[in-house]
Amino acid sequence: MVVWPLAILCAVGVLVGAAGPRPAVAQPFIGCGGSASGSLQGSDVDVYVINVPAGATGVVQGSMIGGDLAETLRIRVTGNGVDVETCQNFAPFESNGGPQTVEISTCGGGQGDYRISTQVISSGSANCGRPLQCGATPDGMELGELGEVDAFRFPGSPSGEVELRIDDLDGRDSPYLMRVYSPDGNQIGRVCGDRIDVVTGSSQDYTLLVSSCGSLSTGEYRVERFDARCPRGPVITTMALLRDDGQFVPPRSYDSAGRPIYESAIGRGTIMVEARVGAALRPIGASASTPGSLPNFQAIIGRPLGLGNAAVCDQGAIPPGGVAATAPLTFRDDQASIDRINDLGCRVNDGTGAPVGRRDPLNSCERSSFSFVDPTTVIQFCAPIPSAEAFPNGDTVLAVRMSDIDGLPGAVREMVVRVASSPIPTPTFSPTLPPTASRPTATATPTPTRRPTSPPVTRSPGPCTCDCNLDRDVGIAELTRCVLIALDNAELSTCDIGDTTGDGRVGIGELVAGVNNALLGCPPEIQ
Questions:
Q1: Going by C-beta distance under 8 Å and a sequence separation of 6 or more, which residues neighbour residue 8?
Q2: CATH T-level fold of 35-121
């Protein structure tokens, strides 16, 4: 019988429950990046609470989305020395610290439905905008609701101009409104269109707000960022894990780094990456595997596929060897790194069995239409991942970049493949788990083992997550350390093996793996 300290079980419960619904509160609270909708009639006044940290700039934006659309919203923000009132559907303010109260009413006494949103402009962690890296954002960006506002943050260029573009993926009738703010909250650019150039004077985080311009509408879009520090090679336009039937499904969510998360119950499917010509304006090469040198399609993974063997192009072996992980998840030019890139590239198939890209949209591996997912795409790479080499349970980060025919690489894009893993064991009324046929039981041997004796458990090779001292046995102290790292109460350096995806943190999937390792023993080592 394994007895778990209450602290560990409660901490695991907090992490898992954090994504669930929160209980309703009497006074509506809107967090950073959140929104709320309501209906006003005559002299109605709706009240909300926000919390903008001291030193940051808060932005409350509202729109009438029904009823008397000619009416504007009266927005008043008060609290802790703040008192701002406007009838322009837009209220920025400098915060002395929260909370603040937001009153919403109509300016002329009209009636109708409305939506408001809140954003925080800051160079620190209070800024909840999605990170905007060089190149293009992933698919799945959209204004999904009338009056919605999206926020992005990006590092300024101390000595140059930053170019931001909007790619309209839905053919909207109205343009997008792009507003750019400096780290101190000043608006430095505003354009109703598809491109804005701003001069930034520091390397701190700047903020881009995207919303409708003119008539309200919804639609999918992509943001692209370019500056002198950005790679000039090919731009990745689409990156996804297709389903078994070849269908493209947009990601359900994004992680804290802005990476799309593709969920799979079985870990197999087809890695699909599309790209277009970059700022260097050179054609994109089609090679995905050139053993001994770098191909044009370059992909690495944070956790091993299949057995994770280092042998190149061993997908035809019996059993298939899989692809080794790259940790940390960065592109390097040493031969071992080049071999791992070619090993994953060997899985690419152009439809004839060759490891090259597809230039004809009619030959797309995405089966819902005879076209590429992105209309600006000029080449598509498709790598089927079968059951024998499936993604492991938990979260696996995949990083990809492309190079043109001159070998000039473009910006790196990443996505997360999430495979459902075993549930975290939790007690019903006590921290003691009752033994069952599938749980380990205590033995009288001098060296207890957490492996069950009946029935036998077969586990795929892989890293022993949370085995901090590398003794192939995860104890209570080590699991506690992983929990503290996941809660940001300890440094990752205290247990590096807790981060098996290479994303610099201990996530839910890794915590689950650590619990399973403590219960069932470490999986076999990768040979």
A1: 476, 479, 480, 483
A2: Jelly Rolls (2.60.120)
Round to whole Å and give the CA distance between 497 and 421: 18
6-17 and 508-520 helices cross at what angle (nearest 10)? 150
C-alpha distances in angstroms, 408 versus 287, 301, 413, 488, 492? 14, 21, 16, 38, 34
Q: What is the DSSP letter of 497?
A: G
pLDDT in tens, 511-522: 888 888 887 888
Task: Report how far residue 80's alpha carbon sits from residue 85's, in angstroms, rounded to the nearest whole number.
Answer: 15
Tokens matching residue 459: 């586990």
Distance CA(45)–CA(63), nearest Å, equals 15
Residue with tokens 């399609």: 297
CA 55/CA 190 separation, integer angstroms: 23
Domain spans of the chain? Answer: 6-14+430-520, 35-121, 149-226, 235-419
Specify the pairing of strand 150-155 against strand 130-131: parallel
Question: Which pTM value belongs to this model?
Answer: 0.62
Q: In what helix (H) or strand (E) does residue 516 lie, and over which residues does it extend?
A: helix 508-520
Encode pLDDT of 386-400 as tens digits: 988 999 999 999 999
Amino acid letter, residue 479: L
Asked if 35-121 and 149-226 have one fold, the answer is yes
| CATH number of this structure's domain 149-226 | 2.60.120.380
